[in-house]
Input
Amino acid sequence: MFHAVYEAVLVSATLFYVSLVAWLGVGMYRSRRDGRRSTTTPSVSVVVAARNEARTISACVQALQQQTYSGPLQIVIVDDRSTDGTAAAVERLMRQWRGTSQMLLVRAPAALRYVCPKKSALAAGIEASDGDLLLFTDADCEPPAAWVQLMVARFSEDVGLVAGFACVEPMHRHRQRLLAVDNLGVSALAEGSIGMGAPLSCTGRSLAYRRRVWEELSGFDRIGHLLSGDDVYFLRLVAAHTTWHAVYCADAAAVVTGPARDLGWRDVLEQKIRHASKAARYQGGARWMGLALYGYHALLLAGIVQGGLGGGWATSFVAAWLSRWGVDGALLYGFAPRKRRDRVLLTFLPIVEILYIPYVLFLVPLGRRGRFRWKDATPLTPEDAAAPPLPNETT
Output
């Protein structure tokens, strides 16, 4: 009786999962077919928050100096209370600056405005900038020369936010390749959900929105109590509290992190718990979807345990795994911004999807409780972890 019930529930859950991936595929198709473009060249401010990035900031600034954008361009580097000479490195770069764009160094105030240090630093940089469009990347990223131009081109009259793709290079170790596959999945989730008008993800390594949107939402004030999410939480606010549309910039070249940090397993674990904490704050339909996926992964774990204890692999369990690998592989194959290079990584997909079971079942609850660090920030207190979710979300 138990096995019959298990198989029936697993089949239903697998059909739900396949339907969800198909939904993302439709959204991706709509995103790629979206012909809205702008030919204007509004003023742009690229804001980069840098905390202890003396080793990487030079490559980032040089990449921004080489942007081919023809409109007014301002580069704002925010020194987020660094202790390694980041500010001095930026000042040296400013003295050597030969670009036509303006470069500005802003020092983040010692007193944090928000719980999240990065939100506080970005807010200081935004307030010091003057561009009509605000673009964001990280201090360890090297945006390609056409990045600003391609992101700006997606700002048609009704678009308030543009999300872009980012990847990590180089990939010398297997764990870097596994993380790259995971990044493809998160990015496909971003484009697919944005294409369906129910945005669920984006990355602060490649993000842009109008200053009007920032002002309309009073900046990060509504999400300032949360330690992370200067990107995803803000995207969700735009969707829930404004009439602006969000789009995904699939035709832009990837923002390549470099030189890539060789994260150890402990660093990877902290990073994934922090990422999981964002999804734990969703409300409305997104929360119900998350709970359904949580249950689906619990069913998969039960099947693995049953097989491991000698109970054999149920036909429904094998079919569920093959269905999952098939639809996920098809989605990521179609998404792959770098075509062949990204598609070769899909050989690691089965391993990633097995690792996703403990990630969803154990790390998401840890993230919900605030059990993670952000750089040198201390873990959240129980009071911080119990902070309210995103306000009044409906998607």
In short: The chain has a mean pLDDT of 86.
